[in-house]
């Protein structure tokens, strides 16, 4: 049996990232999006759960409520940083 873990913070960041990047007006391509997600996750506390019993959606919801403001702040900051210096050339 393999041991499997999942960082719930990833789910929460991924839920928020599209809307926050769109409202920020920066590039929303996959390269920038993965950079924003990685930056935000490095600035947020991880929240690991074991996944052998499946995802615990109820737990996710209550955790999400607590940390929602922190996630929005971290993703917004990440989107600003990435928009200032995207890893690819600007296309327009
Ligand atoms: Zn981009």
Structural class category: mainly alpha
Beta strands, count: 2
Average predicted confidence as pLDDT: 85
Give the helix proportion (percent range): 55-70%
Overall 3D geometry? Answer: globular
Radius of gyration over all CA atoms, rounded: 15 Å
- Poorly predicted sequence stretches spanning 5 or more consecutive residues: none
Q: Could you say which small molecules are bound to this protein?
A: zinc ion
Number of domains: 1
Biggest sheet: strands side by side, in what order? Answer: 1-2
Q: Report the end-to-end length measured between terminal Cα atoms.
A: 50 Å
Order of helices and strands: EHHEH
Strand content range: 5-15%
Work out the helix count.
Answer: 3
Task: Briefly summarize what is shown.
Helices cover 63% and strands 7% of the residues. By secondary structure, the protein is mainly alpha-helical. The chain has a two-stranded antiparallel sheet.
